[in-house]
Amino acid sequence: MGEGCFRTYTPKFSPSLTLSSPNSMHNAQTEHGFTFNRRRFLSSMSLGIGGVALGSLLMPDLFTGGEGTLDGLAPGIPHFAPKAKRVIYLFQNGAPSQQELFDYKPKLRDLQGEEIPPSVRGDQRLTGMTANQASFPLVGSFVDFQQYGQSRAWVSSLMPYTAKIVDDLCFVKSMYTEAINHDPALTFLQTGSQQGNRPSMGSWLSYGLGNENKNLPTFTVLLSRGVGNGQGVYSKLWSSGFLDSVHQGVQFSKGEDPVLYLSDPEGMNRSDRREMLDNLSELNDLSYQEFGDPEIAAKVKQYEMAYRMQTAVPEVMDLSKESDDIVKLYGPDCLVPGTYAANCLLARKLSENGVRFVQLYHQGWDQHGDLPYEITQQAKDVDQASAALVTDLKQRGMLDETLVIWGGEFGRTSYTQGKLTADNYGRDHHPRCFTIWMAGGGIKPGMVYGETDELGYNIAHNPVHVHDFQATVLHQLGLNHEKLIFKHLGRRYRLTDVSGKVVRDIIS
Amino acid sequence: MRKNFLFIASLFLLATVIQGCGENASGLTSETRLPDQVSYNFDIRPILSDKCLACHGPDANKREAGLRLDLAENAFAALQENPTAHALVAGKPELSQVFLRITTEDSTERMPPVDSNLKLTQQEIELIEKWITQGARYEKHWAFDPPVKPALPKVDDTDWPQNELDYFILQKQEQRGLAPNEEADKERLLKRLSLDILGLPPTLEMQNEFLADTRPDAYERMVDRLLKMPAYGEKMSLHWLDLARYADSHGYQDDGYRTQWPWRDWVIHAFNQNMSYKKFVTWQLAGDLLPDSNKEQLLATGFNRNHKITEEGGIINEEYRLLYVTDRNDMFGKGLLGVTLECAHCHDHKYDPFSQKEYYQMFAFFNNVKEVGRESVIGGPETYAKKPLMEISEEDTQNILSFINKPDTNRLIVSVMGDLDSTRKTHILKRGVYDALGDEVEPGTPSSILPFNKNYPKNRLGLAQWLFDKKNPLTARVYVNILWQEFFGKGIVKTSGDFGMQGDLPTHPALLDWLAVDFMEHGWDIKRLVKQMVTSATYRQSATVSKKKLAVDPENIYLARGPRYRIHAEYVKDLVLASSGLLNRSIGGPSVKPYQPDGLWEGATSGRGLLSVYKQDHGSKLYRRGMYTLIKRTVPPPVMGIFDASNRDLCEVKRLKTNTPLQALVMMNDPAVLEASRVLAANLLKEKSSVNEKLTNAFRLIICRKPSAKELNILTNYYEKQRSTITPEAAHKMLTVGEYPMTRNLDKVDQAALMRVISTIYNLEEAITKT
Question: DSSP states of B343-360 as a string?
């Protein structure tokens, strides 16, 4: 693994399931007893067999001459040699408080209860939840911090496992956003725009790079819920917007059907399905002979892909064969489907099988009140598994080519929301600064980038706008964010809208 | 490493080959000769708009060197930076800085600049050169000139046309050496027609009657008959619900329930009444402002309240109130005017002649609503509509609003329009930011489209009058184009939401204008327009595509074959229900919650509100048409999304038509499809008929034609084989799908075998395709 920049993965479960090279394509056909008709279908697409396998899913617009066909840019091919091949995005939904986790601000304790100076607050807008608050007393964190590793990064006692791997992480403490409410902020981070209807980051990568494994979707989504105050997530966050729906995120869920409608109905086994598909393709072929519409041939291919997914997805979702060491690493929850820990483990497996973008959402980080209790529980819920994922990727030699991202949609205020008591307080939404970490995928390990002021309210050094962050992610995947464009209704759209600069300082 | 490089290289090669194929096949690029007379609108403006105007166009803030290339007087004037030189000199490319700068070898001088990532092709450069040589004549953007009804073009094959439309289509075909296909066979034609007019497949009785009807006007009679059926209103509503972003939830964060469905019932009613497009839209825009406005007219204004409304705590009211106004304004632009007005929200439009000021002048029409950003947080029935709202009483549903399908006696409220008594001031919002107030503006319309007539009232009613002013160049064209897209698969202007300079040019400009003027001349009569389209020879052609036609015209731009497309998501469901006999044909009423995989809502919710848990409906509600499936915006019905339905976030005028493995999984495994297969199998087994007849009927119900001998042979063999291999246990398991009662006294193995064959027929490409 890792020797090439455009290697295609061979899934571990069955060699016959990959369609990555002309040879294995051929195998796939004969192995499943493709009929003469079906072979003719594929060859009648006029592009040569390996090309077809790659072609129509990756580049549907080239076949249909859709709006997105771009001058000189063929989707499916990176602009330059990529550092990372895949992304695992551990989205901490609700906005984790940086003051309690990674952004150590001892001064806040010194100034506990004092009003935040107007010069610091500036003209920052407030949410409706604190807009009518008479005063804005600063509040120091209830937890203690220590420095760890060679990088001497500060981490709070709420994140003991993360503390052990700081030398693999790059903390960005100077993230900022434009939105102050959950829905627009989440949408902004995922799509580059606060209002809906644009493609998600994973969709852009699917569009830009295509997929590595023809048996699994390119962009998958895993949901879990923590213990803290939660904010919903929305499937529009993994929508493909105006891109072809082949690029939309596919939610993998716990339960019998990890992908919607994946399982064959009761009373039908695999050979029944194969037989049904053989009859189906024979009938479709008759129709193709009559109409000559290439859509018919494309449809047959989609059914074959669906058939392969039916085997590939349950295999990848099966965590029962994981070793005891792995279970210990991620924690016992990793065997409970639908938990954050299980999703982290699953993310590793999906990534290992060539899924380009694995998007996790973990709810429960919206601590407006009762923060000390809630965030303690919430941090406990994610700490071990997040660190385990990085460790696991590293021990498998996958971290170099897998970009892991951990973070929420904005930060939280340095002053309290609601009443400040001796042992309780809350923090409101704060767009001006928040902390995320990244690991692997060509990002410098053991680094702390950017800095907030001593009150943790404004950015003091190296601000990173959401669009800068997005540009950097695309860059690591070998894509120039200004060139990854889709023309729609007269405008060239980008993930980074009209701004964004790659943060070169954090790239190794 | 080496291997990988080779692989990359071959990928590039492959991409080149694919692209090359696409270009040659469409016959529109590299090999195309330069036209004898270069047209500004059709040849030059697309180049300028796409490659030059971002920096040398209408946006004053981004303009480089003070040069505008979209206006003749500016382009011919002396350059600001070099008064002895001119961007354009008519007839003299060698003196025109435009030509010199696009051809210079000096990369620091060359336009477009390297960092724009834009590049002119050789063909584009030659076109510009020839245009300058021919005098560099500018024309007004075609879409902003009012349409004039053109004469019918002359064609060679005068026997082919059935009505006026066909002359325009045939002329273009003949110019390209294409000839139309023969008429489709009756069965396929009826399926196409029925799907297009009703959104439903033809019943067996209809198929039999039509096949037996040998009168020369049998087709026209069928058209008339279908147009009178109430399902017509349902079918026609769908594109309007997308345009009007109709949904059953408020759309933000907790995404609470709303009762906006009576507005949807009105839309169906209006189409069935064949209300003129003018009245239809005027009521929706300004029903509340009409003299002696009645409750039906008020209900119609729900159109402008279908947008998302927040219930999130901690928001700033004014920011969201302005978002709602923005949404209305953008819908007005995209849906009714077919222009991307929204681009001028934060700055002057970069391509089209709309200033930011003009954006906010339009905005002013929608800025006077008696509303707030957040009226309530998620809650009970009192939150299902937001002020201004109307109450629909029992008496209303007996009288003026009798088309509303109100199932119970609960209080029913709908969000509608209503203005303040005083006028709320409208300011330009700098960069579009809610609290960055710029100059105050008065209501007005973009002068490049049509200046606002001083005699019109300065409110939404006046705006409606402006929209339907005979001189408005866009309204009729845009709607005619949307309907063309519904029936022929793509618009005459392919970018149906963008008739501006960045939009596609019409493939048949004369036809578009003829249709638009004819539509206006005949009182904006929608049914008449539909009839014109479906009775044309163009529409009736077979969809067969020869290799030659596929090579010459892969996208079917010249319509030398009939439209052949996968049907919309909602109609996929309709087809499955109707063909199996399960369809519940009642019209309107509250949206329903059919089968849906467990946990989708629950997994994505904060836990608040009526829609946090999916409580599936039962009984006949499971079998309502697809358009009645409840749309929770943040988690829309999954099958609909998989088949490219709009999530109703914002105004949409065009759907994608993708083809994905997830769609295959739905057709194979969705309990709704399996249940339909089971029920249809039972119905057929109850009939006293042979296996051949049963399979033939199943095929006819779903595919809407008789199977060929080969097809029937495959189906029969498959059926017989299943009968001999399915065990009673497996049969029992297969048949337990869906809530529809089981039919007793049938052999379970027979039924399971037939069910499996029927399910296979549902999975045929042709089943959910308009053929």
Answer: GGTTSS-SSSS--HHHHH
Could you identify the residue written with the tokens 């004053």?
Answer: B60
| pLDDT (mean) for B253-263 | 95
Q: How far is B126 from chain A (nearest CA, A)?
A: 18
- Of B535, B427, B621, nearest in space to B163 by CA: B535
Tokens, residue B741: 């009662």
Nearest to A245 among B3, B658, B665 (CB): B658
Under 8 Å between Cβ of B18 and A210: no
Contact A85, A213 (CB under 8 A): no
Contact A127 B316 (CB under 8 A): yes
Write down the pLDDT at residue A75: 54
pLDDT over 50 at B8, yes or no? no
> Per the CB < 8 Å rule, is B708 touching A286?
yes
Please give the Cα distance from B753 to A369 (Å, whole number).
60
Whether the link from the prior residue into B388 is cis, omega within 30° of 0, is yes
pLDDT per residue as tens digits for the range A118-139: 999 888 888 877 887 888 999 9
Checking phi first, is residue B588 left (phi over 0); if not, alpha (psi -120 to 50) or beta? left
Residues of B in contact with A298 (CB under 8 A): 659
State the DSSP H helix or E strand holding residue B22, giving kind and residue range, or none if neither: helix B2-26
Buried b (16+ CB within 10 A) or exposed e, B660-696: bbbbbbbbbbbbbbbbbbbbbbbbbbeeeeebeebbb
Task: Specify the pTM.
Answer: 0.82
Strand partners, A88: A358, A404
Please tell me whether the peptide bond between B637 and the residue prior to it is cis, using omega within 30 degrees of 0: no
The helix/strand/coil state of A155 is: strand
Q: Are A37 and A282 in contact (CB under 8 A)?
A: yes
ipTM given for this complex: 0.88
Contact check, Cβ <8 Å, B668/A248:
no
Give the three-class secondary structure for B454.
Answer: coil
* Domains of chain A with CATH codes: 24-73+269-310 (no CATH), 86-254+337-506 (3.40.720.10)
Query: String of b and e for A444-461 (b: at least 16 CB within 10 Å)?
Result: ebbbbbbbbbbbbbbbee
The number of beta carbons lying within 10 Å of the beta carbon of residue A403 is 26
- Specify the amino acid at residue A146: Q
Facing residue for B26 by CB, picked from A5, A65, A299: A65
Amino acid, single-letter form, for residue A45: M
Q: What is the mean pLDDT of residues A252-257?
A: 79
Instruction: Say yes or no for a CB contact (<8 Å) between A279 and B718.
Output: yes
Spatial contact of A85 and A401, defined as CB atoms under 8 Å apart: yes
Q: Using N-to-C axis directions, what is the helix angle for B569-580 and B691-703, rounded to 10°?
A: 150
Task: Write down the domain spans for chain B.
Answer: 24-139, 237-467, 565-658, 669-770
Q: How many other CB atoms are there within 10 angstroms of residue B342's CB atom?
A: 23
% chain B with pLDDT above 70: 96
| Residue B486 Cα, gap to closest chain A Cα (Å) | 18
Burial of A99 (C-beta count, 10 Å sphere; 0-12/13-18/19+): buried
Contact by Cβ (8 Å): B206, B169: no
Query: CB-hemisphere CA count at 13 Å for A291?
Result: 27
Nearest CA in chain B to A69: B19
Question: How far is the CA of B761 from the CAs of A279, A291, B44, in angstroms?
Answer: 10, 18, 50
- Choose among B279, B294, B280: nearest CA to B236: B280
Residue A323's Cβ-count burial label (10 Å; 0-12, 13-18, 19+) is exposed
**Is residue B125 classed as helix, strand or coil in its secondary structure?**
helix
Q: For B318, phi and psi rounded to 5 degrees?
A: -65, -35
Which tokens is B586 given? 């009642």
